[in-house]
Amino acid sequence: MRRYDAVEYRLGRVAEWSQPRYRLDERFVALSLLVDAGEDAAAGRWQMQAKRYDDLASLLEDIGAPAIVLLGPPGSGKSTILRHYELERAVEGLRATGEVFTFFIQLNRYAAGDGDAADPEGWLAAAWADRYPVLPPLPELVRAGRMVLLLDALNEMPARSTGEYRERILAWRAYVQRVAGTGSRVVFSCRSLDYSAPLSTPELRVPQVQIEALDEGQVRRFFEAYAPGMADGLWEAVAGTHQLELIRVPYFLKLFVEHAWAQGTMPESRVGLFTSFVRRALAREIERDNRLFRPGVLIAERDYERVVQASRWESEHALPERGRLFGLLARLAYGMQAGRTAGEGTQVRVRYDEALGLAGGEDAEDVLRAGAALGVVDEDRGQDEVLFAHQLMQEYFAARALAKAPNPELVRAPWRAAEIVPGVRELIDSLPPAEELPALAATGWEETTVLAAAMAAEPEGFLRGVMETNVVLAGRAAAEPGVRERLPDGFLDELRWALVERSRDRDADLRARIAAGLALGWLGDPRFERRVGPFGEYLVPPMVEIPGGVYPIGDDEPIFDPETGEDERAHIPRHEVAIGAFAIGRYAVTNAEYACFMAAGGYDDERWWDTEAGRAWRRGEGTAEGPKQSARDVLHGIRDNPQALEGWHDSGQIDDETYERWLRRLAMTPVEFEAHLAELYPGGRETEPRCWQDGQFNNPSQPVVGISWYEARAYAAWLSAQTGKTYRLPTEAEWEAAARGAAGWRYTYGEAFDAARGNTLETRIKRPTPVGVFAEGDTPDGTSDMAGNVAMWTSSLWGEGLDEPDFQYPYDAPDGREEPDAGPRIRRVVRGGSWYYPSNNASAAYRSWFFPDNRDCSVGVRLARSAPISRH
Fold it and tell me: What is the CATH number of domain 539-623+685-865?
């Protein structure tokens, strides 16, 4: 190979990826590594590692895997990260510091026909030779260990059916296994793990790399970097709003800042962001006197004058449509999406001549040229194909067409359990332990429909049609900024109650109920009445009255704990306890409820923190001690039982990184271990739940988790002051009486465990669900989620003991176990199963514990209401 051939190749890569639209600021990239721990791993197959990366090159150098998958939703920057990596390698090569070649190619062009093209290697080799005919053949570079394949959009591979898509994934898996060992590497990008997981096998584990949503600090720093004069105002406008969730994705954040910088205002919605981009591009081309945008067929003279004069638009989504340009671009996008295989939600490529037909008429070529000039349409001349510049832009223009001609049938999807095969129970019984319950199939028109609702002339009428075919999607769309404000209160209430009904419908597939609950969270749950008290707004928790009487507490049989391999006996013996009448929350306290406490300054007002230890915790004193002591306890247990660590690792309960970390800890001196804990848990003041910023845990309808015992008590005290009623944490005896009733059932719903009646590890959901969706698991009195979802703080003490409680059964309230001022190193009882723990924890009699300052993402709180329990 001649030197100048490689130089020409690398200069081409630098020229192409140095364009402004491919710019990447690594300060705003966060990559998390998910390691495949195996299908039978008790802690879950895909285990997230602690270390974070801000660029792909560092990650690849660190892990050494022959293949990885870069995961992220549309707009997260997957393709840009791959292009930036190719740019960096090209620059290295020009400096004579690198001999590696890269090949960026989009898999939505993959055509697996007959012959060599059916094999990924043949397809790649042909594409490489076509693009770089003077360079060595791609298979030769791969075998020499000199190639990094950058394969973009695995989820967008063309396929006529799910079965055909899986066949193509398996073909790529076989190819990756052949590449392994050559020294060359393969990097895929993909929308989500459910598409890419089959690439990983016991023979070759393929790590997945998650692009994390930007956190609040990154969003604020982005404002400071790219809009310095407006940064404070922009942050004040979005902090604590639903809009902040939208702009955590880099694509939207960039559009948001560009709009704010150009207009001096902030768009209200995604539709506003896209429309602002198009308007600014249109004004730019008119200012340049691009002939395509002169008054005529594509842009009418009156619209041309409006753009030149910067006239005010009648709505956030309005574009000049007296001419044909934007109507034909919408027609093109809609037609491209309509030609997809049912269920696909991907960026579409079509042949150039097909695009002309979809755009329509003799002006079609000018429409495509104008779309390219605006930056919304791309033309791949090498493949003779047309595509929109981004999947999100494709969906936006298709939505413009859908808004004018609604078609609710596009989003009709089965939701009844009887209509869906395999069902949830079959999946629970057949999935390997580490696999997550798969989502319900989508139609591919969901995001387009949500955008269309914001542009519909009559959003209520548009969404009434969607309610008939997909009530969950109607709820999602109604909650969008720019839509909600245009809907009548009566319709919103009707939609909310329809979502409540779906979330509780026992005939609905569990996943449909969960989706309804999540949509309800953002729209507002009508079961929680919003009121204003002396300290601001609050939500009234629905309560269930528990009659006074004698209840069976505990059990005579041990409960086997699969995590320790031992029998738990803290709940022995079974005995009867007289309990006065009280009320208990129908649901665990939700994020929506707890958000009111935060908005009212609950963390700043000492009056709600009614114990000395609680007040110290609020000030930030000793907040790290609980996590530190838990780590000490685990280390002590490993030293007592050296085989425990090996057992956890062999079973997949802990991943390689965690295993290595504990080996290092075992080798530390006591002084070194304490220094390690001090670095890991610095402590300090907390002002929100531990999991508050994590999208897996922060939907308003999910239970609040990651709160300490002190935070739970402070919330109860605040709500009591708001309502004039006494809310508190239940005793563990009250909790158990409410969970199993006078009949004393083993579980809230009967004697036999059922993974479909409560959210436990066996249910394979891997996160908290919206409250109340496991209707079959309700107690006879009507409380929900007491056999799973999240474990709950009680007022009761466990004691200082690790394995055995100081406060044993029989339960005796006056013996000191209900003392609120016991101090931070006395463990508190936690009750109920959770999404994280196995079925033994879901038993109504099972007793567990945490230090009061622990903030675990599997633990929340359910309130009781009555006079305080007497301790004397």
Answer: 3.90.1580.10
Q: What tokens were used for 668?
A: 């530390």
CA distance 575 to 554: 6
For residues 122, 123, 126, 132, the Cα torsion angle rounded to the nearest 10 degrees is -120
* pLDDT tens for each residue of 749-778: 999 999 999 999 889 898 999 999 999 999
- Please give the Cα distance from 702 to 696 (Å, whole number): 9
**Bridge partners, 103 (sequence order):** 149
For the stretch 124-145, pLDDT in tens is: 999 999 999 999 999 999 999 9
Domain 3-211: which CATH number of 3.40.50.1100, 1.10.10.10, 3.40.50.300, 3.30.950.10? 3.40.50.300
In this model, does residue 693 exceed pLDDT 90?
no
Instruction: Indicate the SS3 state at residue 477.
Output: helix
Sequence spans of domains, the chain:
3-211, 267-405, 415-444+458-526, 539-623+685-865, 625-683
> In 3-state terms, what secondary structure has residue 787?
coil
Annotate 85-131 with DSSP letters as a single string.
Answer: HHHHHHHHHHTTS---EEEEEEGGG----SGGGGSHHHHHHHHHHHH
504 Cβ contact list (under 8 Å, min separation 6): 513, 772, 773, 775
**Closest to 197 measured CA to CA, from 440, 443, 435, 441:** 435
* Nearest C-alpha neighbor of 483 from the set 732, 269, 299: 269
Token pair, residue 395, equals 């969906």
Helix (H), strand (E) at residue 643: helix 643-651
Provide the pairing of β-strand 536-540 with 529-533: antiparallel
What is d(CA 529, CA 390) in angstroms, rounded to the nearest whole number? 42
- Coil, strand or helix: which one is 690? coil
Cα dist from 53 to 50, 58, 224, 235, whole Å:
10, 7, 22, 25
pTM confidence score: 0.81
Which of 113-127, 381-395, 694-708, 776-790 bottoms out in mean pLDDT, i.e. has the lowest? 113-127
The sheet carrying 791-799 orders its strands as 848-850, 827-831, 791-799, 859-861
Say if CB 726 and CB 720 are below 8 A apart: yes
Q: For residue 35, which phi and psi values (nearest 5 degrees)?
A: -100, 135
Q: What pLDDT is attached to residue 38?
A: 59
Nearest to 730 by CA among 810, 832, 805: 832
Distance, CA of 430 to CA of 164 (rounded, Å): 22
